[in-house]
Amino acid sequence: MKKHLHFLVGLTALLAVGCSTPTDSKIEIVKRGIDHARYQLTQAAAEFDTLAGFPRSLMPKFKEVAPKDWTSGFFPGSLWLGYELTGDENLRAEAEKYTKRLEGIQFYKGTHDLGFMVFCSFGHQQLNLKDEHSAEVIVEASKSLISRCDPKVGLIRSWDFGKWNYPVIIDNMMNLEMLFWASKHTGDPVYRDVAVRHADITMVNHFREDASSYHVVSYNNDGTVESQGTFQGYADDSAWARGQGWGLYGYTMCFRETGDRKYLDHAERIAQFVMNHPATPEDRIPYWDYNAPDIPAAPRDASAAAVMASGLFELSTLVEDGQKYFDYAEQLLLTLSSDKYLAAKGTNGGFVLMHSVGHWPATSEIDTPLNYADYYYLEAVSRYLKLRGIDPRTI
Ligand code: GLY
């Protein structure tokens, strides 16, 4: 069924590309994005060789992070995606090298971010090498991740810091993909069961009537809600752009993995919120928060756009009328691939995209490149070309 829809959507996309840019020009634009990414990733991998960590962002100055940082898996993941898109063996060697730096993190139980850290890196390595070692790392990391689920609460605890009793953030939806994989690989349903329960309870407590989400929901020890609010958004009741992307991508993935229709309906509701929001600018790259008070002067968040584009490409393959999602994602991707967001070769500290927002309330990483913007951009490029029936290594 999914394959069938993939084909239909791909075919429809070829026949009705929707926007004014001709089909061939769109491929040229994306091809240029891949070319820039290959250059930037190659330079960055060589430059950071002597460091122990991973490049994360650029502002106010270059930020290198250790394996325990939540973003540590994205640079290795981007190297893998770069290899998958180009077949460049140097990128593959660099990807293996940087992935290896994350080896020890599988045993780390101090965060919920293990899915980001391990599945974006070792997940791609396993996909490419089909090696048992990567699979073992992913399964071990999944064990560490589910150790953070208190059965009385039923959710994976996100953070061990802050004012909350038991904080769970919308971003956590992204870590569930690794758990679904671990159950498929081992045949043990325990990982998947935790993921499903987490997704179900999050759907009830994180979302508002209009399908926008809170960033942080904290729970009491008996599983009742302690508070609903934000950490990285503009306000407790605002719609932080990347959070909407995490939810959209996360519930789309949950439907892919379970076939449970309620996840698909939920993902579509989030997509409608994003696509029809009056604060969305003409080029569709969202402001960092849909309720930022200084729109249209507020900075855009390319990372949110990249996450949304990748999620929407997948969503377009899972519904009968997926063309609207494909078209929207395509517009996001083409804009991200334009000079407005795509860095010129040799600039931007080796990152691929410019203009993301990390943590506005902390005045941290504002209007900067971010390694996760690059990762989801490259994933969106890969999904786009697949839907268009194009082997990226032939363009
Ligand atoms: N997971 C943290 C963030 O999206 O910034």
Features:
binds glycine; two-stranded antiparallel ribbon; single chain; 7 strands; 395 residues; three-stranded antiparallel β-sheet; globular; 14 helices; mainly alpha
Structural account:
- This protein is mainly alpha-helical.
- Helix content is 51%, strand content 7%.
- Strands 3-4-5 form a three-stranded antiparallel sheet, with no helix packed on it. Strands 1-2 form a two-stranded antiparallel ribbon. A two-stranded antiparallel sheet has the order 6-7.
- Helix 12 runs parallel beside helix 14.
- The chain is globular.
- It starts with a helix and ends in an 8-residue tail after the last helix.
- The relative contact order is 0.14.
- It binds glycine.
- Glycine (GLY) is lined by residues 70, 171, 232, 242.
- Glycine binds at residues 70, 171, 232, 242.
Topology at a glance:
Layout: H1 2-15, H2 23-47, E1 54-57, E2 63-65, H3 74-86, H4 89-100, H5 114-119, H6 122-129, H7 132-146, E3 167-169, H8 176-186, H9 190-205, E4 216-219, E5 225-229, H10 241-258, H11 261-276, H12 302-316, H13 323-336, E6 356-359, E7 364-368, H14 371-387
Antiparallel strand pairs: 1-2, 3-4, 4-5, 6-7
Termini distance? Answer: 29 Å
- Low-pLDDT segments: 1-18
Give every kind of bound small molecule, once each: glycine
Q: Structural class of the helix and strand makeup?
A: mainly alpha
Largest sheet: 3 strands, antiparallel
Query: How many H/I helices?
Result: 14
Average pLDDT score: 94
Proportion of residues in extended strands: 5-15%
Determine the fraction of residues in helical runs and give it as a percent range. 40-55%
Cross-sheet strand order for the largest sheet: 3-4-5
SSE sequence, one letter per element: HHEEHHHHHEHHEEHHHHEEH
Shape: globular
Q: Can you count the beta strands?
A: 7
Radius of gyration: 19 Å
